[in-house]
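thought: user wants a sequence for this fold. calling inverse folding tool.
action: design(structure=
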């Protein structure tokens, strides 16, 4: 074998060995909130939308495994009264590697609910999806209803 062909073969085998480490294995799913859009201030008796994007991404060198089905939960709590105004749960589909799911909630808070609301959006609150990192599953914020 010529020296140049030997080196080409050696490099090819090395690359094949390095890239094949992910052929037979995958990383656990990592569900995370990748986007959100909601207003900071709204008017009473007017509908407003809250949107959240949840994705499954690998934190390692290999693709993430597909997550199991689960749920997401949106909660809006009146800061002054402690009254939970919104407590909505939606289905989170199985998500394959690098996939996203968009959640859109439409809310109306009447004039009796004027005040400041603490928002909490949680991915997989029941821990059923096989998610490997629970630290990126919660979005908090504030919405003022005038």
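)
observation: tool returned 146 residues.
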């Amino acid at each position: 074998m010529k020296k140049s062909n030997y080196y080409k073969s050696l490099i090819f085998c090395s690359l094949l060995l390095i890239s094949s480490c992910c052929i037979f294995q995958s990383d656990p799913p990592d569900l995370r909130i990748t986007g959100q859009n909601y207003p900071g201030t709204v008017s009473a008796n007017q509908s407003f939308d809250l949107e959240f994007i949840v994705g499954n991404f690998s934190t390692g060198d290999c693709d993430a495994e597909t997550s199991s089905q689960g749920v997401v939960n949106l909660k809006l709590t009146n800061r002054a009264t402690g009254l939970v105004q919104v407590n909505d749960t939606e289905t989170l589909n199985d998500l394959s590697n690098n996939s996203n799911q968009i959640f859109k909630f439409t809310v109306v808070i009447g004039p009796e609910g004027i005040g400041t609301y603490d928002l909490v959006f949680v991915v997989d609150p029941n821990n059923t999806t096989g998610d490997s990192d629970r630290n990126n599953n919660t979005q908090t914020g504030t919405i003022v209803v005038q």
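thought: summarizing for user.
answer: Here is the designed sequence. Strands lie at 31-37, 41-42, 48-56, 70-78, 84-92, 99-107, 115-123, 138-145.
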